[in-house]
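Hi support team,

I'm opening this ticket because the web form for multi-chain structure prediction keeps timing out on my end. I have pasted the exact lines I submitted so you can reproduce it. The total is 631 residues across three entries, so I didn't expect it to be a heavy job. Is there a limit I'm missing, or should I split the entries? Thanks in advance, R.K.
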Amino acid sequence: MSPTADARTRPELRVDRIACTGHGICATLLEGRVRLDPQGYPVVDEPRVPRDVGDLAVRMCPARALYWSDRP
Amino acid sequence: MTGTVDDLVGLLDTAGLTGRGGAAFSTAVKVRAAHDHGAHLLVNACDGEVGAVKDAHVVAHHLDELVRGAVLVTGGRRQRSVRFAAHRGSDTALALHRAGLDVLDVPDRYVSSEETALISLAGGGLARPMTKRRPFVTGGRDQAGRRVPATVVLNAETVWRVAQVAERGPAWFRSFGTAAEPGPRLVALTGAVDRPGVLDTEAGVPLADLLDAARPAHGWEHAVVGGLGGVLLTADEARGLHWTGADLARFGGSVGPGVVDVLDPARCPLGTVTSFLLYAAGETAGQCGPCMFGVPSVAEAWRRLVETPSRQGVDEVRAAAGLLPGRGACRFPDGVGRFAASALRVLEPHLAAHASGTCPTRRSTHRVPHR
Amino acid sequence: MGASLWYLSRATGVASIVLLTAVVVLGALVSGRRRPHGEQATVVMAVHRWLSLGMVVFLVAHVATAVGETYVNIDLVSVVVPFTSGYETVWVGLGTLAVDVLVAVLVTSWWRHRLPERAWRAVHYAAYLLWPAALVHGLVLGTSDEPLLLGVTVLAGAAGTAAVLWRLLARPHHDRARRDVVLGQEWT
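Hello R.K., no limit was hit. The queue was backed up. Here is the completed structure from your submission:
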């Protein structure tokens, strides 16, 4: 599978902004890809997150606000 | 006109009809998806954007065609219901009720006319946007986890155009506009104009022509294209562009829901923008942190900037506005961020004048009052 | 043999109460005004989860020794069905009730992402029932002539009660507060 095709079909990590209440655990687990704004809500700088650490973040979010999506 | 959904989708695809509510998505694709999922139809006649009136125009002047369009989209099948959404108590709602149509009365809130907010309201919930994990044309769940039936939302003008395409043919449709943006389009002109109203025009026309038809106030200096979710332009910029996505994109804007608002030249534009942003701050649905805190932050930063113009103040507005795009469940914060950024760009000279104690609008050398 | 199993059962019982209290306190901290943020929140959440597993180990030992020892009559059925033991029906029953709810909490948490959020939430909040049940069970049955065990259990009770009161009475976190304000506006 070519690199470009892989990048197109790989699911991205998204934040359900309504569910998110700003615990900030995702920014700790996904350092370098997610940071927090002044109010404590995530800014997703890089949604293409490795599967394993992304799955961990999805499980650990107390608000269950993280999910994978391959929709554009 | 009889025929299958395939016929209709084919006609719409050939015509190149796209959504007239602002998102400009292919109507053929939406109608096909709606058919495939047996989706109910919500016709959005809310005129939700600030200054918008074209949905009211369609209902007031083309109601029969609108209803025919809705029937075509749902294939006339009764299991696929059609409801017409309009703000409670508006003339549009009144007209729809009087016509005996199934009306969804929408509360008078800015985000309540958003696609998923309408779907939520139609399902018995609150008129607030929902997270769209999958398009709701396939059905889905609301924030509480309850099932939401498959629903497609189309702008009133779009549905009207569906009937027109079906009845007059794609070639007629394509005889208007450009190759990239075919078809007739409604544009509302409002604000400081002698002849406010809706023009049935097309992509590619010079905005100057549309403005002249509306007779703007003498000495007007700024216009807002696209309302609160749009961009501020100078008169020169507005007069210099054609009504196309490409031209408007140069200024960070889009054709959007077709609203051109000429700002009152007798009123300081800084105050006008303050009004827009204060309104925005009160219209957050209060569901997403970056919006419910971020939009009031922008309004507050702008208010402080107007009170005491400074480089730092500009940076603070820019920073606050920069934290909005893509961080809410709907595009409301994106729109506010876009609007604020455009205000910073266009009103930089005006702010500089205020900083040295004069307001170009008042053309006075007195100290600018703290408002 | 019977006597030492009895003492082991009481010891592991108290250990379970202590760990359970810690888990509940950490869980209660997750909401409320001064809830942990960022790195702190990550640690709290991780400890909350791991401690609950550690507690299960002591709990299993506690139940096994309670059933195994011959001093009093507690059979396997009464481990699962509340208020069916021969010995101290009510107080053992409370323990059984707590275990039943705990199993539900653990299972729904393990499968959280396959369940509707409301279901997970409803079961998880039942922890506020399970904790006092376990505490009373422990206080009545396990601490009568052991001041150390009694002291530890009472301390756990105090800590847990403080956490519950904090959860109920502390001013809401700014996120919750803003949501509530806007929710009160016109939306229908």
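A quick check on our side: Chain C has a mean pLDDT of 91. Let us know if the file doesn't open in your viewer.
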